[in-house]
Amino acid sequence: xxxxxxxxxxxxxxxxxxxxxxxxxxxxxxxxxxxxxxxxxxxxxxxxxxxxxxxxxxxxxxxxxxxxxxxxxxxxxxxxxxxxxxxxxxxxxxxxxxxxxxxxxxxxxxxxxxxxxxxxxxxxxxxxxxxxxxxxxxxxxxxxxxxxxxxxxxxxxxxxxxxxxxxxxxxxxxxxxxxxxxxxxx
Length: 186
Prior knowledge:
Shape: globular
InterPro entries: VWF_type-D
Distance between the termini: 30 Å
Structural class: mainly beta
Protein name: APLP protein
Pfam families: VWD (PF00094)
Mean pLDDT: 76
Largest sheet: 6 strands, antiparallel
Low-confidence stretches: 61-76, 157-162
Number of strands: 10
């Protein structure tokens, strides 16, 4: 257990073999954080302090670029939202749940994902000696160096001004890919 003092978005866990899932802790405005979860062409962003979540299913964007907020009834990802909890899982044994009351989120991986993921949550291979592995394959015992190595964006205390997307039929696509805080392309 360690205190994450980073003011940047960091990669918590990613399947680097099959690209089955990605979990990112995003730093939002006003010292708030969100959890970005990607599985099966579906992205869910969870805002624990606000007790809300947003969902996007990118498999539908080719057919109709206007429709981004989709029901997950036809998806291979399951989502349950209660009064103070949200749980997201897929059929391949990846589960992310957040309890808003306690501001606690958990990531659970089935045995199928043994040793294929890495990030701030470790390597998931039951080997204590390689939990502090950085993306370049080297190891550290320095928390700051470890945290910085898993940052997914360049960050600074000054917010950058973003240019608005041109108003076209694909304006929503542009916004999701280039303006949303969780986007890796931002």
